[in-house]
Amino acid sequence: MQKPFEREGFPARVGPVPFLGLALFSQTGMSFVQQGLVIMGSFFLTVYGLNLAELGLVTTALSLGVVVSMVFAGALVDRLGPRVVLFWGAALMAGLSLLLLTARSFPVLLVTLFLVGIALAIVPSAGTKAVFTAFANRPRGLVMGIRQTGVPIGAAISASLLPGLAAHWGLHPIYGLFSVELLIAGWAFSAVMQPWHVTERSANRTRLTRGVWKRLLRPLMVAFLMVSGQYILLTYSIADLHRIHHLSFSMAGVILAASQIGGGIGRVLLGQMSDWVGGRRPPIIASAALMGATLAFVAGLLPGNAPISVLLLVWTLFGFSAVGWNALVLTWAAESVPPSHSGFAMGLTGSTVFLGSSIFPPIFGVVVDTSHHMAAGWWMLSGILLVAAALAWYSSLSKRQFLQLDDDSNRDADV
User: Fold this and answer.
1) How many angstroms separate the Cα of 288 from the Cα of each of 47, 60, 210, 229, 317?
2) Are 354 and 59 in contact (CB under 8 A)?
3) Angle at 110 (CA atoms; ends 105, 116), nearest 5 degrees
4) Which residue, of 91, 253, 278, 381, has the greatest Cβ tally within 10 A?
5) Which candidate, 393, 4, 34, 84, places its Cα nearest to that of 235?
6) Could you tell me the CA-to-CA distances from 7 to 19, 25, 134, 162, 259 in Å, in that order?
7) CA neighbours within 13 Å on the CB side: how many for 237?
8) What is the Cα–Cα distance from 23 to 132, expressed in whole angstroms?
9) What is the biggest distance separating any 2 CA atoms in the chain, rounded to whole angstroms?
């Protein structure tokens, strides 16, 4: 097996390092918008007069749009290739993001966010397939982790910039910024991809078997549970830090940005760790989930006068675990199916992730509004992540069968 960054035989118009860099740039651009819209939910509270449960619907609307389109986008990438899908998808994303300028009421905002979410699903579907395919026969844990750091990097940039910009500019100029950077980032990455070959298209006519579906079920279940930490952290951190710990919006944004940087570091280190243990993804995921559960519990215990240094440390470590798992689950899912269906598997996993992200933030908001204590929400999250840790650990005990995609699985009955 080749080292991941050897240039020889690399199937792209550039070498592995610039290819991966542009993949990271593309994902960061998408995350800057998708995660940024969630972060700006704190301003939607004032603009639209929302409560915390309604704030969770902002995340829900955006995520449901991704859920609706991501499986379809993944299958389309398997058939047409990531280059074509991302090129035209970038134009679609840029156009739909401008619709946010028309939102004058909360219902219109939710519908618009749903449409934007439908378009944004194109970037993770095309990007993960492009990197997964280009780095075939090379260790994937590290490179998939690097590519997926675009999510927390985009969120960190959003958290550090958007609260201040929105306070001074308002929301509409930011929507125009979203449109421009989506177009640039998408087209830059698609330009270095190789065209999809006919043989690659024809391979996608094979059907997934019962055995493959069974292998895919566990990463889907773990992804659904794990995303609760990622999006609850993103949606409610600023509200918690501002209301409970009395920080300014700008300082709360800095601490949230630190958590996303921690998540980016987690995606790289956890991916590298999984390569070191022979590509066994579930035990590393289980460790991250257990760490996240512990820190969610700690977040609920912190007093209102906790020092900023303590808040910074807790949120950074929280981000490492609650955000750092994502690339590993995507890789685990893709490695559980034949290569011709890897885009579909990652799209289905991504759709499951966004389904979870649409469900858990409103539940958190309802728990907090009902109990009148933010701690109750954090402790609920801790319990969810403990279940995810147990399921991932159980999966790790039988991981060997998930790595074997041999002829026996192809003889299973079609479903």
Assistant:
1) 37, 25, 30, 11, 10
2) no
3) 120
4) 381
5) 34
6) 11, 20, 11, 38, 34
7) 34
8) 11
9) 62
Spatial contact of 318 and 234, defined as CB atoms under 8 Å apart: no
Closest CA to 354 of 130, 77, 118, 162: 118
Q: What is the 3-state secondary structure (H, E, C) of the chain?
A: CCCCCCCCCCCCCCCHHHHHHHHHHHHHHHHHHHHHHHHCHHHHHHHCCCCHHHHHHHHHHHHHHHHHHHHHHHHHHHHHCHHHHHHHHHHHHHHHHHHHHHCCCHHHHHHHHHHHHHHHCHHHHHHHHHHHHHCCCCCHHHHHHHHHCHHHHHHHHHHHHHHHHHHHHCCHHHHHHHHHHHHHHHHHHHCCCCCCCHHHHHHHHCCCEHHHHHHHHHHHHHHHHHHHHHHHHHHHHHHHHHHCCCCCHHHHHHHHHHHHHHHHHHHHHHHHHHHHCCCCHHHHHHHHHHHHHHHHHHHHHCCCCCCHHHHHHHHHHHHHHHHHCHHHHHHHHHCCCCHHHHHHHHHHHHHHHHHHHHHHHHHHHHHHHHHCCHHHHHHHHHHHHHHHHHHHHHHHHCHHHHCCCCHHHHCCCEC
| Residue 166 identity | A
pTM above 0.85, yes or no: no
Q: What are the pLDDT digits (tens) for 26-70?
A: 999 998 998 888 778 777 777 777 777 777 787 778 878 887 888
Contact partners, residue 25, CB within 8 Å, separation at least 6: 150, 185, 188, 189
Ranking 13-17, 63-67, 283-287, 291-295 by mean pLDDT, the lowest is 63-67
The token pair at 265 is 């570091």
Structure confidence by residue, pLDDT tens digits, 375-415: 999 999 999 999 999 998 887 776 444 444 433 333 333 33
